[in-house]
Amino acid sequence: RILILDFGSQFTQLIARRVREARVYCEIHPYDMSLAAIRAWDPRGIILSGGPSSVYDADAPTVDPGLFALGLPILGICYGLGLMAHLLGGRVGKAERREYGRAQVQIREAIGPLLPFGADGAAEEVWMSHGDRIESMPDGFRVLASSANSPWAAIGDPVRDLYGVQFHLEVAHTPRGAEMLTAFVRGVCGCTGDWTMHSYVDTAVAAIRAQVGKGRVIAALSGGVDSAVAAVLIYRAIGDQLICIFVDNGLLRFGEAEKVATVFRNYFQIPLRVVDARQRFLDALAGVTDPEKKRKAIGNLFIEIFEEESKRLEGVDFLAQGTLYPDVIESISFKGPSATIKSHHNVGGLPERMHLELVEPLRELFKDEVRELGRELGMPEEVVGRQPFPGPGLAIRCLGAVDEQRLEVLRRADRIVMEEIREAGLYDRLWQAFAVLLPVRSVGVMGDARTYEEAIALRAVESADGMTADWAHIPYEVLGRISTRIINEVAGINRVVYDISSKPPATIEWE
Ligand code: XMP
Question: EC number(s) in its UniProt entry (predicted)?
């Protein structure tokens, strides 16, 4: 197994993800883990992450130089490289300009993590983001790769198995970076690469038990993948110490609320408390048209209801959340040596108010890894493969005022979209597809009569992570069927339009 020491890089979790992709177990620990603790943890190799500091900063995070004498292979990335060079007697200087973005490196010697490249002298595309650079190498090190700006872009001491790269090999912009990491963890460290999601379950279960002990955990299901996988995993760990609550806000898609209840009760036999709060949400949303006010109204009411429910329960100490790594990174703030990470999610604000400790078993995972984990836990494909759905639900897809009648129109149209998208075999290829109800009336003709009704916008996007997205090139025939069906089957709609905006500059949701 591989130990990753974190110096505060935004990409540390990405390093972990790449190591998992190489089928090797790893854990991230703060950079100040003691040598004794490292020895006890017994890694096969160590990766030092990048970080925002310069090794010359007064309070620059550092490690005990004894780390390099443990006899373990070590790979330093960016700041990790600078620190290693600095502590082993090399010279590190501030680059005149921060080097940032794509760069070419020339492979000088294909050994260690650069082994996959074989032919010396080959050019490789990499992604640089650093302020410091190596100016002279420590004794025993050799140049493995260089770039125009960094003569020592990758260095290594094959005798001690110490390697360092100036560039970020964990990001997708370094196309062959995953191969380099695999070469390090398998080739240099000798890990076998037989770790799977199956073993992740065991590790996560043990960690949840250790954290929770005999305590009680409360979980809020949203109907989405993340909260469902988190709940099933926690249930596997602590059984009935987990209490699942599902607040039916009336803002879910057609049939989804029933599906959540069925899957949990019948499929997993996990007891579920369903709170019917549909009317309360409608009341809270009455007359609200501003998107941010809608979100606030929904968030606040959710917290209120959740608090009421948990007051009925005795001795709850923990709150489960399906926070994923991308949720963490969006709200990350690294302040010097100690990372202050606060996660904001759909139930943000709850833990502080209720004095609950968070249980977040997914916070190191990415969406596709969560789906894989869900499958490993035996969850049905219709749950783990579900497209993302926003916490505020249909309220932010019902533009203008939200009332039961308009929600029902939207739900019907959206149901047709889903049916046709599935029927066409497009569901799994799309990040999201859904209907939006526009508060715009236009003139139409039906039979022999004039109509004057609202419009549905169809939104379908492809995306890897929701941060950027492209509108999907849905076949015209499918668009045609969706349009015909909505206009014929949904009373109150006489026009369907297709949204062809990408994100950015648009966003995926309309509000
Ligand atoms: P936008 O509209 O910002 O959405 O491009 C990006 C992704 O996030 C989802 N989304 C939310 N998810 N709570 C959530 O859990 C929210 O408040 C929320 N708002 C947007 C959206 O569906 C898309 O996948």
Answer: 6.3.5.2
- The per-residue pLDDT for range 274-284, each reduced to its tens digit, is 999 999 999 99
Q: How far is the CA of 251 from the centre of ligand 1 (A)?
A: 15
The most confident of the ranges 45-49, 305-309, 362-366 is: 45-49
Atom of ligand 1 nearest to the CA of 506: 5
Q: Report the distance separating Cα 469 and Cα 194, nearest Å.
A: 34
Mutation to probe ligand 1, out of 344, 397, 465, 508 (largest number of atoms < 8 A from CB): 508
Ligand 1 centroid from CA 273, angstroms: 26
Q: So what's the pLDDT on residue 204?
A: 95
**Residue 416 exposed, middle or buried by CB count within 10 Å (0-12, 13-18, 19+):** buried
Closest protein CA for atom 14 of ligand 1? 390
The secondary structure of residue 390, as a DSSP letter, is -
CA dihedral 506, 507, 509, 511 (to 10 degrees): -80
| Alpha carbons within 13 A on the beta-carbon side of 240 | 2
* 467 CA distance to ligand 1 middle (Å): 9
Of 28, 21, 62, residue with least CA distance to 46: 28
Class of 197-384 in CATH = alpha beta
Whether residue 152 has pLDDT greater than 50: yes
CATH annotation of 2-188: 3.40.50.880
Ligand 1: residues within 6 Å at CB? 346, 388, 390-392, 432, 466, 503, 507-509
- Active-site amino acid positions: 78, 168, 170
- 399-498 — its CATH code? 3.30.300.10
Predicted confidence (pLDDT) per residue in 418-463, tens digit: 999 999 999 999 999 999 999 999 999 988 899 999 999 999 999 8
